[in-house]
Design brief:
- This protein is an alpha+beta fold.
- It has a seven-stranded antiparallel sheet with strand order 1-2-3-4-5-6-7, sandwiched between helices.
- A hairpin with a 4-residue loop joins strand 4 and strand 5.
- It is globular, with a radius of gyration of 15 Å.
- The N and C termini lie far apart (34 Å).
Length: 157
């Protein structure tokens, strides 16, 4: 699966996959030490390919954090107050964030990916996107509108 991400993203044009120089293994190990967690292999592969960047789908955007910001953001009191135990990995540029649930607090599996508005930063307002980064990227590239999923989630309650 991890090689799939590298292969998939490397074929995309720069207006769809805006990438930077990749992170090093040493940088990733420092992040893992700072978070006290081993990151999922597909996310590690994404960081090795590009240390921060953007994946632009037809209707949704994934701006993922460069290595230098990950530990600080995830140790912040703000995120730890509202969505404790998660690993925030990026945003959509429009007020929503993407985060991992590494310890399955939300019952969708270890390292499941979620999406939530910063305005309603609560677990109950979060939408499950995928059990893997690869799956989330597929949904994004296939044109799903994650913002609409938040709206639908609210109307289902």
């Amino acid at each position: 699966m991890p090689a799939n991400i590298k292969e998939k993203l490397s074929k995309l044009p720069p207006e769809v996959f805006a990438q930077n120089e990749g992170a090093t293994e040493e940088m990733i190990r420092k992040i893992e030490a700072g978070l006290g967690l081993q990151l999922p292999e597909d996310y590690r592969q994404l960081m090795l390919l590009s240390d921060g960047g953007t994946i632009q789908g037809p209707k949704s955007t994934f701006n993922y954090e460069p290595a230098e910001y990950l530990v600080g953001h995830n140790k912040s009191e703000f995120f730890n107050t509202y969505i404790p135990g998660t690993v925030v990995i990026g945003d959509d540029g429009g007020g929503c964030i993407y985060y991992y649930d590494p310890r399955n607090h939300l019952g969708k599996g270890n390292w499941a990916l979620f999406y939530v508005s910063m305005g309603t930063l609560l677990f109950k307002e979060s939408v499950h996107l995928s059990s893997s980064l690869d799956g989330m990227i597929d949904r994004l590239l296939n044109g799903e509108h994650f913002g609409d999923m938040l709206f639908q989630h609210k109307s289902d309650e």
